[in-house]
Amino acid sequence: MASRLNPYLNFNGNARQAMEFYARVFGGNLSLSTFAEFGAKDSPDADRIMHGMLETDAGYTIMGADITSDMEHHPMTGFSVSLSGDDADTLVAAHLGAHPRHSPSLPQQSPNPRYARHERKHWSRDTQPEST
Question: In the chain, what are the domain boundaries?
């Protein structure tokens, strides 16, 4: 297997909701394991996600987990998750999956006309057709 670099996101009790959101946007196989499944059935963290992994048909892998309740939560900053490529339909579908009420015809400025980016909780994308 070739090496891969995958985002591993940490959450404060909402990893299930976040990973299910990414599964709705990108599709694929989502596996979630709770702390209870690994022996912490009586823990206050029993229902939290110890490890989650989404593997898509397109080859994306996103992993995530909840911190335990005895840990201090440090919200994620200074990062982005980027989706880019040549297939505008895929990029628009990802954007609409994240924001179904947004119109794909709304132009966004980007150096790459085939680009979608998720920064923290905000999706941006450029759906302008390439110049011919």
Answer: 8-66, 81-126
At 116 the three-state DSSP class reads strand
Q: How far apart are CA 94 and CA 115, in angstroms?
A: 11
Instruction: Write out pLDDT tens, residues 14-58.
Output: 999 999 998 988 889 999 999 999 999 999 999 999 999 999 988
pTM equals 0.70
| Under 8 Å between Cβ of 30 and 23 | yes
> Are 42 and 67 a contacting pair, CB within 8 Å?
no
Rounded Cα gap, residues 74 and 100, in angstroms: 29
Residue the block writes with tokens 């939560």: 73
Which residues neighbour 69 within 8 Å (Cβ) at sequence distance 6 or greater?
13, 44, 45, 48
Planar angle of CA 84, 17, 58, nearest 5 degrees: 30
pLDDT digits (tens, 9 = 90+) for 59-86: 889 999 999 999 998 887 887 767 777 7
